[in-house]
Specification:
Elements: H1 3-55, H2 66-203, H3 210-220, E1 227-232, H4 236-251, E2 255-256, E3 264-265, E4 269-271, E5 277-282, H5 286-302, E6 307-312, E7 325-329
Parallel strand pairs: 1-2, 1-4, 1-7, 5-6
Antiparallel strand pairs: 3-4, 5-7
């Protein structure tokens, strides 16, 4: 039975005990009243009998009052029942109080145990909280160290990034310088090639093979009988080229004439101080000999011999006859 039920039972027993006490007091009062009345009647009867005895009157013994006797018995029985009921109630109340005391002791023990468990849990919680705080402090310290390391790493990364940017810039500049150097080298190589080519041109004598001479002759063959004379610079290379041109002209049956110069080269060409090959025609004979002149110039160019067509005015040409075409083979040009 739980504590609340025991308390309810104890309250009911208290109520019952209070009721029994009330009834017991009432019936005790009635018993006392009956006894008092019985005593009063007995005393009164004794007094009356004493008076009668003095007067010489003798009465027969009277029976006690039945009503008073019954009332006395009833009161005594009720008092006994009330006392017995009160004793029973007291016994039951004692048992209930014992149960309540045991329940209270058990509850106190349980509460003490729970309090001990709570204190132990609180202690464990405090320990756990302390360990958690220590771990939190360690975590904060680790985080601080990590932040410090990260900050240092970031500064190093920034420095590395700046170094990389600088290195890239230097590399780009180096590449630019290298490109410029390569371009200058290429330009120098090209210039060297061109210089070599020019040098080869200078070193390579002008010449016309027999096959080339035949092609030139075939191109100017239709101008048979065109008069010409020869002029040349005083160097062997110009003299060799002059011989080749002369052979082509004679093969085309052009009409050779000695120049009017008293000093001749190979007894057929007058000496001049000139550069390159040029074909001259007097101005007044343009209509007659210019087609032949142009055919000769183009044939020479086709075989790789640069040649120029020049028209001579009377006042510009001195010491040369004007009744013919003048074929002039000057020294090899430098360009």
């Amino acid at each position: 039975m739980d504590e609340s039920a025991l308390k309810t039972l104890l309250d009911n027993l208290d109520i019952s005990r209070s009721s029994l006490h009330g009834w017991l007091h009432f019936w005790t009062f009635l018993v006392v009243l009956g006894v008092a009345l019985e005593v009063v009647f007995v005393v009164k009867e004794y007094i009356d009998q004493s008076h009668d005895f003095r007067r010489g009157i003798v009465h027969p013994p009277e029976k006690p009052s039945t009503m008073l006797f019954i009332l006395g018995l009833l009161g005594a029985g009720l008092v006994a029942i009330g006392v017995a009921g009160e004793l029973y109630v007291d016994v039951q109340a004692g048992k209930v109080e014992t149960e309540i005391r045991k329940a209270n002791e058990l509850r106190v023990a349980l509460l003490s145990k729970e309090a001990g468990d709570a204190r132990a849990s609180a202690t464990e919680a405090a320990d756990a909280s302390q360990r958690a705080k220590e771990q939190s402090d360690k975590a904060v310290a680790s985080a601080s160290n990590a932040m410090t390391i990260a900050s240092g790493a970031r500064r190093e990364a920034d420095s590395f990034e700046k170094d990389i940017v600088s290195a890239k810039t230097q590399a780009a500049e180096a590449e630019s310088h290298l490109a410029d150097a390569l371009q200058r080298a290429a330009d120098a190589k090209q210039e060297s090639v061109e210089a070599t080519r020019e040098l080869l041109k200078l070193k390579t004598p002008r010449s016309l093979s027999e096959e080339q001479q035949k092609r030139i002759a075939s191109k100017i063959k239709r101008f048979v009988g065109t008069p010409f004379d020869l002029w040349v610079s005083a160097d062997s290379e110009s003299g060799v080229l002059l011989e080749s041109i002369d052979n082509a002209l004679r093969s085309a049956e052009w009409k050779f004439n000695l120049p009017g110069n008293p000093i001749l080269y190979a007894e057929k060409a007058g000496l001049v101080s000139a550069s390159g090959v040029s074909i001259h025609v007097p101005e007044e004979h343009r209509g007659e000999w210019e087609p032949a002149l142009l055919a000769l110039v183009n044939a020479l160019r086709a075989e790789g011999i640069p040649a120029a067509a020049i028209r001579d005015a009377a006042e510009g040409e001195k010491g040369k006859p004007r009744d013919r075409i003048h074929v002039i083979v000057g020294s090899k040009p430098l360009n």
